[in-house]
Amino acid sequence: MLPAVLQNFSQLHDYATAVLNECGGTFEFKGPRFANLDMVCTCDPSNIHHIMSKNFPNYPKGPEFRKMFDILGDGIFNSDSELWELHRKTTMALMNHAKFHKVLERTVWDKIENGLLPVLDYLIQKGNAIDLQEIFQRFTFDSTCKLVLDYDPCSLSIDLPYIPCEKAFTDTAKALLHRHILPESLWKLEKWLGIAQEKKLAKAWEAFDQFIYPCIPLVKDQESNGTKLQDDVDFSLLTGFLKAYKGKSDSRDFMRDTLLSLIFAGRDTTSTTLTWFFWLIASNPLVEIKILEEIETKLHVKETKQDRFFNAEESRKLVYLHGALCETLRLYPPVALEHKSPIRPDILPSGHHIPKNTRIILVLYSTGRMERIWGKDCLEFKPERWISEHGGIKHEPSFKFPAFNAGPRTCIGKEMSFVQMKMVVATIILNYHVQVVESHSVSPSDSIIIQMKHGLKVRLSKRHA
Ligand code: HEM
Description:
Layout: H1 2-7, H2 12-22, E1 26-29, E2 39-42, H3 45-54, H4 63-68, H5 81-95, H6 98-126, E3 130-131, H7 132-149, H8 164-181, H9 184-193, H10 196-212, H11 215-224, H12 237-244, H13 251-283, H14 285-298, H15 312-315, H16 319-331, E4 337-340, E5 346-347, E6 353-354, E7 360-363, H17 364-367, H18 371-374, H19 414-431, E8 432-436, E9 457-462
Parallel strand pairs: 2-7
Antiparallel strand pairs: 1-2, 3-9, 4-7, 5-6, 8-9
Protoporphyrin IX containing FE binds next to helix 5, helix 13 and helix 19.
């Protein structure tokens, strides 16, 4: 079956969706003999529920995942069992800390005020088309680095500086999708020869190390100088992690893997959702009007200044906007795939027999596009489907809407990303009108993160010029 996949590689996510639709949601892929590419692909909610939640202990990510994602080392994405539990407990404790929410709010607003708004105003003045995807990637890179490393690389500045680490995330996500469809021996050969996607991955690895390692000893020095690691005034994730992982023998490398995984988690997912969101509302002007009305009435914007600060509490009042973001995530979940590999043989609810160590790919992109799950209008962008009859957000189970994963490994940054996205969207919609450049071609990229292949070229105009 590999030739068909290679032939459709440039539109792999849609091709997989079409095949899964034909097969009732689960498909057994057979690769060439000896290539170790056989796998079971599924987007069936009952299978997702079984694998991610009900029978979770039987389904670690497995050794194949770890080999493919070696660039993330011992970070949370690559870990299973005790190591994963340690990461999960530590990260949740830090991200649920009351002070973290204040730091988040301050960091995001600071980036909007001193990065996003000045850069957009400058680009409008120059009259050029703007690649919104690039702007959002720089935005989330800076804000995530500030939150995770306590350091803002200021990639979202007027001159849009080239920062190797910032670009390395996109190259990594593309190379990792290639590793999914090439036999291991082939991508290992490419790695050894230093060619093709593996060459880019090696460069990305170098860029990550050069960027992250220098951020680690700075705080270590502070500690040896007697500075308290976490005092009441300055809460930071970095100091929290340093304190938690202090005793580990390889603590510098472990910190590198921990921090890189978090930046990876925060940068591409949030920027990708924002990009698809603005494309979807540019194609659905009525939705844009409703969002604008909601912001103006619920946040009383007309009585206050247009460019005022929105806080996290206010963003929770924006129910329709929340629905529009969920609808974006249903159609374009940034994390396209999830891996599992059972320790013991099992039978899935769909009836498929799964020998132990089978490679299972959960195709999260396809779950949101199945007619039997979401109805005849499943390909339409309808924020209304998320609004309950009482006017609140309608809850959908995570196995039906797995954009943030499901079960014990559900995304830790879900709340945080909604706050960040709503603050950005509210600011942009209030201040600018977004129009996609005519003839700009839009399609998902061949990457494990569903970015836009050619970026999102738009023209912005000031709403109240
Ligand atoms: C729209 C935004 C986001 C989406 C759609 C999203 C989606 C996901 C998905 C699908 C996973 C499972 C990945 C896997 O196991 O392979 C995940 C895990 C995770 N996410 Fe997010 N994420 C988002 C934002 C964030 C942010 C902003 C952070 C924080 C920096 C974050 C932190 C994490 C962490 C730490 C995990 C690992 C959880 C675990 O394995 O126990 N995410 N996310």
